[in-house]
Amino acid sequence: MKKLYAIVVTALFLCTQWAQAQTTLTYYLPKDVSYNKNIPTPQQVLGYEVGEWHVSHDQLVMYMRHMAQASDRITLAEYGRTHENRPLYLLTITSPENHKNINQLKAQHKQLTDPAASAKLDISKMPVVVWMGYSVHGNEPSGSNAALLAVYHLAAAEGPEIDKLLQESIILVDPSINPDGLNRFASWVNTNRGKNLVTDPNSSEFNEVWPRGRTNHYWFDLNRDWLPLQHPESKGRLASFHEWKPNLLTDHHEMGTNSTFFFQPGIPSRNHPLTPETNYKLTREIGNYHAKALDKIGSLYYTEESFDDFYYGKGSTYPDIHGAVGILFEQASSRGHAQESVNGVLTFPFTIRNQFVTTLSTLEAAHSMREKLLAHQRDFYKQALNESKKATNKAYIFGSETDPARAYHLADIIRQHQISIYRPKETIKTGNRTYSPQNAFIVPLEQPQYKLIEAMFEKRTTFQDSLFYDISAWTFPLAFDLEYDALTSKNYKPAQLGELVTNPQLPTGKVTGGQSTYAYAFEWKDYYAPRALNILFNKGIQAKVATNTFAGNGRTFNYGTILIPVAGQPVSSADLYTLLQDVATTNGIEIVAMETGLTTEGIKLGSPMMQNLRKPSIMLLTGNGVNSNDAGEAWHLLDNRFDIQTTLITTDQFNRANLDRYNVLVMADGSYNSISKDKLRTWVHQGGTVIGMGEAIKWLASNGISTITFKENKDNQARTRRPYTELSSETGAQVIGGAIFETTLDLTHPLAYGYTDNQLPIFRSNTLFVEPSKNPYANPVIYTSKPLMAGYISKQNLEQAKNSAAVAVTAIGAGRVIAMPDNPNFRAFWYGTNKLFLNGIFFGNIISSGSARAE
To answer: Where does the record locate the signal sequence feature (predicted)?
Structure first.
């Protein structure tokens, strides 16, 4: 045994020494290619060989700038800035001759997506456009480090082969899709690396601290943001994507250390039905080039397993709905410089080499299949337009008469996807809905982006497969809780299209009635009403909320209306008026000057039912055990969108923090066993409000800080023997990866203030089903008896979801615990349920103990 141990240790030592010694360019570069010595190598600029250290973003940028100056094959353009103000760069790499005509080539290439012009193009003379995207997940760094090699090779390689490639190709390199995450991860692993490489998986080098480097500044997965477009990285990248309309896009990722290498196609049964079959055939053909390249260097790989091409919001799938081919690469991750794995010591240089080799095989495939790829894009848009003409639906119309801000935000996303969108020329009535020109938008389907429009608006509930790598539904008007309808030839004509919307604007607000000497009121229905109230709180302004309706000034004010008395404020009546004018304008709300407290109907303005509000002082728990995505979505909403100061407190810090300065605690999905339940219970008992989401509500219930109970999963299936190979499929089918469900609201409840329709779509991605309370006043949000609106759910889980509670409130002394099994802030584009979350923050403490849960 000792002898065997000695052999293993010796082998690991030799592998480690090999990893440290084999980081010269000869390890990576093709053996039969010569390189221009006037083009600087990465080592000459950075001071170390590729793979010796993890490149930081500033170093990556430095090298790319050097290359743009040194090579006439490269131009460099900044397409955006991250939340942390890091530049996002796109390199255009092609022949010097092509660079001289780059604008003409770009314009001609975009004509491939215009069926009216594409038939006239001679694709035999057109260059293919390839987009290479690296490391959208910051702690999957082999991609961005391989980008150093890719750019060097394309700039410095010499000979007729590279000249022909560059003449017949335009290569767009995005060396770091997620600079903030990449820098966070590089700093960690470089800091925890010793002079002598340690391969022990227990080493700190391979176990980065929370929230880890996968995500961007607000802990979002940017590889899920291609459709929602909620972050500057995605907005800038997509603008560049549509500027070029590439034919082939690569998306370089990493996976578990004990894996090998994956390239698409993925699992065939999990492809989105809107993607044409030609796409999969091309993907398989391209895969042959990857297999040949990886065979040559002896790297293990696999394909058509594990991953899929269903959700169009991913980098490798978004191109598929644009006549391009998206290719996902997944490399086993060293998560540092060299780590033991079941396949031996996995070195960082080895992971980089695989990413670089498949970069070259992609370029070889694109060049060899150039005319096929160009023809596919041309035919895709021609076919899409023909399908749109034959489709039953001719347009989608959406809007909101009560909250035009949400409609504006959806219109803005649609516009960024290069979809033509219009205002209706006149009021349109369909069924029991009315859409006005000032508050609605029409998206005609007869346009080249037809398939993408369908992907954004469809409500799909039937699927070929029951397993999904990501979400199964993302219907945008449901996410925004907007009224919308599909228009057919019976109720739609192109003549109904009004102004083409090229630059949507957030509606501006106003103060009506002039300066008041008594009070002002604004309703809570507008999306940015919480931001307006928060601004007033920050100025020291006192506010009340109406817990019942009233009428005055010739209009009716609904539940949740905010009242701002003129008397007793820290500013003069004139200054208050000026402040309110600015608040109304910038937040798109209408503030009404009230002449008297003697309302014509309902409660009076001095009624006890006008309850005083307190300024929220929020702590958001972060750190070990907390789902960083969900926590980041809450933080982003509060900080970035609503300008609400939020203190981030780690679970380790909670037990020693002074909680007296806070009145709201947000607990995102996660495990909280390290925090003191007694300290938390005492804080709640004294008047604090807890908003728990996902698995956090199980912890609250099991520790006596909530009285909610959960539905038991009743498996009535016969316990007969089944094939072992079906195990993963059967268990996976019970996962709710992400679907949309219908709930009903009690519009009189503080958590529903601002909603004007008692039907609310909610996004669900877990199997936590809460029993409704026996207290008839304690069920503000309930799943309906037929809840599935879009997406996949098993029959077993559907039964559990029916009539379960979507929100539950527990009274603990003077405090309240608001339990939300679902995430109301999902991926920042679920605008429709943000108000539930914000209402918990602003109104949680005024919820009557009689309406809180009691069994």
So the answer is: 1-21
